[in-house]
UniProtKB/TrEMBL annotation:
Domain ABC transmembrane type-1: 75-258
Alphabetized NCBIfam families for the sequence: PhnE
Similarity comment text for this entry: Belongs to the binding-protein-dependent transport system permease family.
Keyword Transport: yes
Protein name from the UniProt record: Phosphite transport system permease protein PtxC
Membrane topology: Multi-pass membrane protein
Annotated source species: Candidatus Propionivibrio aalborgensis
C-alpha cells in the first residue's frame, strides 16, 4: 500500500488513518512544548477574559456624532488609497503572474526570477514600506498608496500564477490548435479560465488592503489610521466605536460585492 493511500480518508473502517493521527499528535505536542517561547499561558489567557470584556464594555458609549464629518473624510481617503493601490497592483501583477506560472512562463529562468521578485516584494509588511516611501516622498496618502501597491503586487502576482497553473489543459490546447500564438494562448485561454479566481483574489486583496490602509496613518501615510491610534491612546471610545463600525461596514460591503461578482462570472460562463 502506498503512502498516499494510507492517508486517504474516509478509510474502510470510517476512522482516521493512523499516519494522519500520528502526525496530528506530533504537531499538537510540538505546539504544546513550544508555547512558552511565545509566552502562551492558558491560565493567564483565561484570567484575562474579564479584562477583555471590561475593555469591550467601555466601547458601549454614546458616539461622538460631531466627529462623523471628519470620520467620513478620513474613511473616504482610506478607501481611495485602497482602491488606487489595488488597481495599480492588478495592472502590474497580471503580467508578472503569467511569467511566474509554470505552464505560462517562457522558460525556467524567467519563472524563477519572477517568483523571487514577488517573494521580495511581499517579504516586508505594508507599514515598513510606508516608512520607506514616507521618507522618500513625504507625508500624505501617496506613500500609503505606493506601499499598498508594492506589497500587493507580491501577493497578487503569486495568486494569479497559482490560478493560471491549474487551468483546464483542454481549453489551452483548443486555442493553440487554432493557430494562436504565445500571447494569444495566454490571453484567450488561460486568463479567461482563471477569471473567477482572479476576481475572488482581487476582492480579497481589497479587503486586506482596506485593513492595512487603516493603520498606515500611524506613520503619516494618510487614512483613518492616525485617528484610530490616537482615539485608543486618548481613550476616546466615543470616536473609536464609530471608526471600528465604519471599517466593519466597508469590509462587509466588499465581501458582499465579492460574492456577487464571482457568482455572476461563474453563472455567466455556465450559461
Amino acid at each position: 500500500m502506498t503512502q498516499a493511500s494510507t492517508l486517504r480518508w474516509p478509510t474502510p473502517n470510517g476512522l482516521l488513518p493512523l499516519p494522519l493521527v500520528g502526525g496530528m499528535l506530533v504537531l499538537a505536542c510540538s505546539l504544546w512544548l513550544t508555547a512558552p517561547i511565545v509566552e502562551v499561558d492558558l491560565v493567564h489567557l483565561i484570567g484575562s477574559i474579564g479584562k477583555m470584556f471590561a475593555f469591550a464594555g467601555q466601547m458601549l458609549v454614546m458616539p461622538d456624532w460631531e466627529y462623523v464629518p471628519q470620520l467620513l473624510e478620513k474613511m473616504l481617503e482610506t478607501i481611495e488609497m485602497t482602491v488606487l493601490g489595488t488597481a495599480i497592483a492588478v495592472v502590474i501583477s497580471l503580467p508578472l503572474g503569467i511569467l511566474a506560472a509554470r505552464n505560462a512562463t517562457p522558460n525556467v529562468v524567467v519563472y524563477r526570477l519572477t517568483r523571487d521578485l514577488l517573494s521580495l516584494m511581499r517579504a516586508l509588511p505594508e507599514l515598513v514600506w510606508a516608512l520607506v516611501f514616507v521618507s522618500a516622498v513625504g507625508l500624505g496618502p501617496l506613500p500609503g498608496v505606493m506601499a499598498l501597491a508594492f506589497v500587493t503586487v507580491g501577493f497578487m502576482g503569486k495568486f494569479f500564477a497559482e490560478s493560471i497553473e491549474v487551468v483546464d489543459v483542454k481549453a489551452v490546447e483548443g486555442v493553440r490548435a487554432h493557430g494562436a500564438g504565445w500571447m494569444q494562448v495566454r490571453l484567450f485561454s488561460m486568463v479567461p479560465e482563471a477569471l473567477p479566481d482572479f476576481v475572488g483574489t482581487v476582492m480579497y486583496i481589497l479587503d486586506h488592503n482596506l485593513r492595512a490602509a487603516a493603520i498606515l496613518g500611524l506613520v503619516g501615510a494618510g487614512g483613518i489610521g492616525y485617528d484610530l491610534v490616537m482615539s485608543m491612546r486618548l481613550f476616546q471610545y466615543d470616536r473609536l466605536v464609530l471608526i471600528a463600525l465604519s471599517i466593519y461596514l466597508v469590509v462587509t460591503a466588499l465581501d458582499r460585492a465579492s460574492d456577487s461578482f464571482r457568482s455572476r462570472i461563474i453563472h455567466g460562463r455556465q450559461n
